[in-house]
Design goal:
The chain is an all-alpha fold. The relative contact order is 0.15.
């Protein structure tokens, strides 16, 4: 397990970095409205904050007793997958909350299909449209996090 202090500080730094990455990209694209920009940036920050401890834990498990190259790759893949996955999950839940008004009553078969397909479509939409907001700032931060992990792992 990562040390709680490391996980917490890393989560805060990762959240700020992922939120900033989305913010910079949206501002450079002259995107929609300031309220929408804040919402998307906050979503990316929340996803990053939740993802860092998960990615760090996965990287520690995979790289246990292995070389620095493996540790770097494990951190790179683990943190990237956790960040994209958890941010996509938060996006899908937000997306689903918008469409919930038109869905069938909760816990019916129809509702189950609507829930599953709405979440799947939202996840796909995030992968197609949302991942670009991680470049280039998020990618540079991911590279730096991988290097940090490879140098400081136990």
């Amino acid at each position: 397990m990562p040390a709680p202090g490391t996980a917490l500080l890393g989560a805060v730094l990762w959240a700020v970095t992922m939120g900033a990455s989305a913010l910079v990209n949206l501002l450079l694209d002259n995107w929609v409205t300031p309220q929408k920009i804040r919402t998307v940036s906050a979503l990316f920050a929340a996803g990053g904050g939740l993802a860092f401890p998960v990615g760090l834990f996965a990287a520690r498990i995979v790289s246990l007793g292995r070389s620095r190259e493996v540790a770097f790759a494990a951190a790179f893949v683990g943190i990237a997958a956790a960040t994209i996955g958890l941010t996509a999950l938060l996006y899908a839940l937000h997306y689903r909350s918008y469409y919930a008004e038109w869905h069938a009553p909760v816990f019916t078969l129809t509702w189950g299909f609507q829930f599953a397909f709405t979440m799947a479509v939202a996840s796909y939409q995030f992968v197609v449209l949302g991942i670009r907001l991680y470049f280039p700032l998020g990618f540079v931060a991911l590279f730096a996090a991988g290097l940090w992990f490879a140098r400081h792992r136990r």
